[in-house]
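Per your request, structure below.
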């Protein structure tokens, strides 16, 4: 009897996902993962609907629905640079019904930024897995003369025009902000920061030539590449982004300490039992192994980034220590 083509496709996807899971150390049977214990689970994000973190959470919710819980919804708790969402999940039930998808900055950078942070990332949360990662990219606008084509050119222009030498980021104290601080210090130049309320107004000012440069995500930069209004000079990745293959990394250009890769990751309240944490990680890794997930992430300039919970926790601890040194060296004053 012939196998229906859609059934065959599903079978191939499941086999591929199973192979990917083997590399992450999770091997729970699919049958065991297909019986939801919960009626409802909520994934909270700290940013407005439609952004890449929100879309990532919704892709995960779609996959978990019917496997982890009968219903899985996404809600946004916007405010305080994402901290409201983190605080909300910290206070949530530790039964798997309250989950968080958040950039890593809220966990590894904010402890060094805010004096009165109302959560302890390492003690109040169970890290489940990173879902997607991305670098930042330095873009210059039409305010900068057309002959400025490289990072070296731009640094020379900034030094010759200190009053115009500025960069925008989606907020003070963000990892994007610190990438600009690090460049200014390493290049020994004045590099004035302009804090925006998110990426959208920053992109608007860049496109209008209202500010010399800005630190963007690939998701923000990719749709603008054909406009001719922006020039992309460098990324903060460990290697070149496959979405921006012609843009060198800071490391390639001699700025070896400007390496920042942000991630959207899944967290749960700290007292969630290890079995459920591992189940969530396994299901997430199944989702990340699917070609359609990788395609949707690629449209946002995101790479899948699965890790085992223990590996992820160790990585967060190392990043927290690294950011402490970066913030101290920058001279940034912690905020209340």
């Amino acid at each position: 009897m012939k196998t229906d083509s859609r059934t065959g496709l599903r079978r191939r996807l499941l086999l591929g996902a199973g192979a990917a899971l083997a590399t992450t150390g999770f091997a729970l049977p699919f049958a065991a993962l297909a019986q939801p214990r919960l009626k409802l689970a909520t994934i909270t994000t700290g940013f407005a609907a439609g952004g890449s973190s929100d879309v990532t959470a919704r892709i995960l919710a779609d996959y978990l629905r019917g496997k982890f819980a009968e219903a899985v919804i996404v809600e946004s708790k916007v405010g305080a640079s994402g901290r409201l969402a983190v605080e909300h999940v910290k206070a949530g039930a530790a039964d798997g019904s309250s989950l968080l998808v958040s950039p890593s900055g809220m966990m590894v950078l904010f402890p060094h930024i805010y004096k009165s942070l109302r959560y302890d990332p390492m003690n109040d949360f169970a890290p489940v897995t990173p879902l997607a990662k991305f670098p930042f990219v330095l873009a210059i606008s039409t305010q900068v003369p057309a002959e400025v084509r490289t990072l070296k050119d731009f640094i020379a222009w900034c030094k010759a025009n200190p009053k115009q030498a500025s960069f925008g980021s989606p907020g003070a104290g963000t990892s994007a902000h610190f990438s600009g601080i690090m460049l200014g210090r390493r290049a020994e130049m004045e590099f004035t920061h302009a804090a925006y309320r998110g990426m959208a107004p920053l992109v608007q000012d860049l496109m209008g030539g209202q500010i010399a440069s800005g630190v963007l995500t690939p998701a923000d930069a990719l749709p603008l590449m054909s406009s001719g209004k922006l020039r992309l000079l460098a990324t903060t990745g460990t290697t070149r982004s496959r979405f921006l293959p012609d843009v060198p990394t800071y490391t390639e250009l001699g700025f070896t300490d400007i390496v920042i890769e942000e991630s959207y990751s899944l967290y749960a309240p700290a007292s969630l039992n290890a079995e459920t944490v591992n189940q969530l990680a396994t299901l997430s890794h199944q989702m990340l192994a699917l070609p359609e997930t990788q395609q949707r992430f690629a449209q946002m300039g995101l790479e899948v980034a699965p890790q085992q919970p223990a590996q992820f926790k160790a990585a967060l601890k190392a990043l927290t220590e690294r950011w402490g040194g970066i913030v101290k060296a920058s001279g940034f004053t912690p905020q209340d």
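The two ends are 68 Å apart (CA to CA).

Regards,
D.
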